[in-house]
Amino acid sequence: MNPGNRPHVAYDEIIKLVEPRSTVLDLGCGDGELLQRLRQERSCRGRGVEIDEGHIRTCIGKGISVFQGNLDQGLADHESNAYDYVILNQTLQMVHRPDRLLREMIRVGRNVIVGFPNFGYYLNRLQLLFRGRMPVTGTLPYEWYETPNIHLCTLRDFRNLCATVNIHVKTEAASHKGRPVSPIAANLFATEVCFLLVDSLKSI
């Protein structure tokens, strides 16, 4: 499967977290669907960063401002606090240094939204335990030899990373195929998670 065809996950949840008329930077924006919905449903002004030329053309065709960029090279071209929200959905696990990118996102955005597949989901655990193979599921649909995912993590892993780099978790939401999951059981039963983050200093 082509990384550009990765499933669209948690768009509804992300849109709920974004205040109307905000400025948004969507990293790894794909075909621009999320930015388009934010424009239509929240009257947001958005810009995307995407590496795939086909997706860039699609975004331009939708009237979405987008430029080509490699997230592994950071966000040096963006000023601090330039956006109300910086969004990274289903892409965190694909970058080489997620910790560095998170720090850059927190610098550039007043709020940061991150969504990713939860590797701690119980079916992933069972596939590893009983089949002895890397799991292939609806949210992780790649075989190990073709996957773009190089840093899979669990919900707990991400919480620990945020604590390590002094990022404050304002809100987190977990879901199983679009249905809410209780925070108590989220690391075991959630297929996707979504976090709203700020710099720890900004949260004081």
Give a topology summary.
Elements: H1 11-17, E1 23-27, H2 33-42, E2 45-50, H3 53-61, E3 65-68, E4 83-89, H4 98-108, E5 109-117, H5 122-131, H6 155-164, E6 167-176, E7 179-180, H7 186-189, E8 192-199
Parallel strand pairs: 1-2, 1-4, 2-3, 4-5
Antiparallel strand pairs: 5-8, 6-7, 6-8
What does this protein structure show overall?
Helix 4 (98-108) links the parallel strand 4 and strand 5 (109-117). The longest helix has 11 residues, at 98-108. The chain starts with 10 loop residues before the first helix and ends in a 5-residue tail after the last strand. With 204 residues, it is of the alpha/beta class. The protein has a single domain (3-199), classed as Vaccinia Virus protein VP39 (Rossmann fold, 3-Layer(aba) Sandwich), CATH 3.40.50. It has seven helices and eight strands, in the order H-E-H-E-H-E-E-H-E-H-H-E-E-H-E. Residues 1-7 have low confidence and may be disordered. The protein has helices at 11-17, 33-42, 53-61, 98-108, 122-131, 155-164, 186-189; strands at residues 23-27, 45-50, 65-68, 83-89, 109-117, 167-176, 179-180, 192-199. Strands 3-2-1-4-5-8-6-7 form an eight-stranded mixed sheet, sandwiched between helices.
